[in-house]
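Notes taken during the Thursday session

The instructor put the following on the board and asked us to keep it in front of us for the whole hour. The protein is Trk system potassium uptake protein. We were told not to look anything up and to reason only from what is written here. First, the residues (484 in total):
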Amino acid sequence: MNANMLRSAVHVSAIFAFYLATMMLIPGLVDLYYDNEDWKVFASSAAMIGGIAALVAVATRSSPPVVSTRFTFLVVNLLWLTFSAAAAVPFMFATIDISIADAFFEAVSGATASGSTVLTGLDTMPPGILLWRSMLQWIGGLGVIVLGLFILPFLKIGGASFFKIESSDRYDRPFARFSTYAYSVVGIYAALTLLCASLYAWSGMSGFDAINHAMTTMASGGFSTHDRSFAFFTNPWTHWVAIVFMIIAALPFTALILLALRARFDAFRDNQVLVFLGYTLFLAILLSMQLDISDTIEFREGFTKAVFTVVSIVTTTGYAVDNYMEWNTFTVALILMATVLGGCAGSTTGGIKATRWIVLFGIIKRSLETFIYPHAIRTVRSGSVSIPDQTQYVTMMYFGTFFMLAGIGTVLVAMTGADLVTAFSGALTALSNVGPGLGDVIGPTGTFGPLEDSAKWILAFGMLLGRLELFTVLVLLSPAFWRD
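Then, after some discussion, the predicted structure tokens were revealed:
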């Protein structure tokens, strides 16, 4: 590994850490407004992180290296690790009194927009901590690499290659300059967040709840300001506002830009959008019918809860409107299946994106047809677009690696003393960045707090793996990556 390359990567991360430190002043001011002593925690954390970041940035300043794939992988990983470590500092010193493992877990869950939490007593928690959690998800949902565009120009490095590594968006960008595209993403994201907050407030949320939930809704994150999550809010209109914006957040941002700036409705005819909406609608109707047939919940209430639950899990947001573990076994099985689904590529969602499912089933379909017509030449398609062989190969690698890591994670978490349901659903929800798992411990009404610290470190690493599309992290484990 070239020393100048490593120094430049650390320099970029230090600049980002300095910006993150200044953002800590916002929840600090909120605590000061509410006369909460934790404002000192945010002020001191901002000073400490900002001071260290400034010193490191000065010490590592050098001429920019030649941009390469290896450099982009290194910067992406360092940015996310820096983001998570720096974000954990206010949790460590706040009056909520949690361990280092808990603080890092909560920070990683926020940064990766996963929504898993170790905290209880959210209803009476300092407002600054609640806002900080929501801010982490909002920043992480947008993508640290997009925000990195404010940093990379100082190094005279383009941001397009970094965005491709960190995001699964494969759309043709609507602008020639990548910076124009990135600023459009930020603008659309912020505008939708404000609109979501306004509608939440209209439906009966307090202003503070509306702002926090709007940020975590658009980030597909799921952090709430209440222990009961969305079950705290009884107005059905609040639930439907959440449903609509969770779906919007799961759509490709490129398509949203084309709609907002050029009135291009045809962007939503993309096959992945139709597939995502298709399986989400199918599972929601299936669950609502089952709840009605089994007389689990009255139909009107059950329909809203079924749609909310399915949309929340499929979009990897992770809000809970009820304890679905108490509904029936069918619901638990359906939720488990929905955990590995996801939204569209280029959105804020996690999970296995709709594009990958399209490619997988295309490969299966072609293989079955080959058994019948062994000499026929057939291609894998997504709509009218032919999928290249390399994309097919990478997709199959992704599926194999995803479920292999889920199995390894299950074994490792189980070794810490967790039961099988907790271990398996915990590993799966971490890789999918969904949030809640299954069972009494980490289910929709539980938290990850009771788990051993070792399990929390394992799951935190799993959340980073899932957010960075697996291979972005795993490539660092290859000796060839570090060879000069």
